[in-house]
Amino acid sequence: MPGNRGRLKSVVVGVAITGAAPAFAQSSVTLYGIVDTGLGYQSSQTTLGSTSGGRSAVKMVNGVWAGSRFGLKGAEDLGGETKAIFQLEEGFNSATGAQSTSGLMFNRQALVGVTNPRYGSLTAGRQYASYYQLLSPYSPTTWLTGFYGAHPGDLDGLDTIYRANNTLLYMSPKIGGFTFSGSYSLAGVPGSVNQGSTWSVAAQYAMGPVGLAAGFSRINNSTVNGGAFGADSTTSSAGGQAGVSAVTNGYQTAQAQQRFAVGAGYKFNSQFDITATYSNVQYIPGAGSAFRDLAIFNTGGIVLHWKPTAVWDFATGYSYTRATKANGIMSSAQYQQFNLSEYYSLSKRTGLYALQAYQRANGETLAPAGNGTNIIDATATIGDGFQTTPSSSRSMFAVGAGIIHRF
Question: Which topology term describes how it sits in the membrane (predicted)?
């Protein structure tokens, strides 16, 4: 009997190990990344808010075609087609080795959640709001890059600048071509569920050659009634405010930012496709804001993409942004931007690229001045790669070329 019990125990342990093996086999963790470095030229560079003293500049640039990064992502099969998922992603400056956002180890994404092909996915952490996730396929940044091709200053958040902390996001499965998503970011400000929060809803239809999406997003400043952007605001990056540029410099103290956008795309064949976007962006003042009237920016843009061979991609784009007259401005700010891009695939993972862009600004805008604002001439700021180094004049020309490797 003792021998039989010993043999039975061995069988039970063996069965347990055998039964556990498939679960381990269905778990996976992937290390991935991008390194992107090049050289860039801009015809005029000055400090944010300045309208004089601009000089041309040649410098090394990084993360132009796609932001340099490394990350980990994984999934574990929980049974019934449900999986636990996670993603941790850090951005870095490939020219210096520094973090792209000082003080944030996983500044691009840090999330965990569950997913099921029938019910969709629910994730929690620092991530992109629903607005961006469903509109991004029609963004100008797909082929023109965010660095050179985002709408001026990435005003409408169609690039990857606006990541939200403490976010719960639901993404539906694709049903008859439709996908729906909603996200809410909790600021955790005592006594208020709204102050500092971010919320977003979006829908997308994609079937065959046709694609269409619409989204809405609202970002609330955690500073009561507006003022200096609060560190508890959910789009804060280590206490800093995202999306500040020569376009929005005078509106940093808004009580809230609100974005609505629609995007569409059509693929004619394997060589030609077209995308277009329209956005309405509002900077909403509060009692503590340095500006007093609602500031509204409307932007329309179009991108043509041509792939003549397996290794070449070309694109051209145009966008027009116009602000409304408000806050004492009699000549509203206007920005016209023209873009070209060329990409050559050396392999599936490595490519060479070149980019050219020109922007012309007209009208007036606001700049911070002490506790208030000044009306100044609108100055050019191409894409979102020149947020802190805009032109000192109404025009800017910029070119860049580089190499990108994905692993």
Answer: Multi-pass membrane protein
The H-or-E segment that residue 130 falls in is helix 130-135
For β-strands 82-91 and 272-284, DSSP reports them as unpaired
Q: Return d(Cα 62, Cα 93) in angstroms, integer.
A: 6
Taking the CB of residue 114, how many other CB atoms lie within 10 A of it?
17
- What predicted TM-score, i.e. pTM, was given to this entire model? 0.91
Q: What are the CB-based long-range contacts (under 8 Å, 24+) for 375-380?
A: 375/327, 375/328, 375/329, 376/49, 376/51, 377/51, 378/246, 378/247, 378/333, 378/334, 378/335, 379/51, 379/246, 380/44, 380/246, 380/335
- Spans of all domains in the chain: 119-402
**Cα separation, 248 vs 387, whole angstroms:** 10
Is there a contact between 137 and 230 (Cβ–Cβ < 8 Å)? no
- Confidence at residue 194, expressed as pLDDT on a 0 to 100 scale: 92
Q: How far, in Å, CA of 203 to CA of 192, rounded?
A: 28
Contact predicate 341/145, CB 8 Å: yes
| The one-letter amino acid at 134 | L
**Per-residue pLDDT tens over the stretch 107-138:** 999 999 999 999 999 999 999 999 999 999 99
Write the class of the CATH domain 119-402.
Answer: mainly beta
What is the CB-side half-sphere exposure of residue 189 using CA atoms within 13 A?
A: 19
Query: Do the beta carbons of residue 57 and residue 42 sit within 8 Å?
Result: yes
> Cβ contacts of residue 263 below 8 Å, gap of 6+?
135, 137, 138, 139, 158, 211, 212, 213, 214, 275, 276, 277
Is the dihedral angle over the CA atoms 236, 67, 89, 141 positive or is it negative?
A: positive
pLDDT tens digits, residue range 313-354? 999 999 999 999 999 999 999 999 999 999 999 999 999 999
Q: Residue 312 is encoded by which pair of tokens?
A: 């070449």
Spatial separation of the C-alpha atoms in residues 60 and 45, rounded to whole Å: 14
| Pairwise CA distance, residues 358 & 364, whole Å | 19
Spatial distance between the Cα atoms of 313 and 270, rounded to a whole number of angstroms:
12
CA count, 13 A, side-chain hemisphere, 110: 11
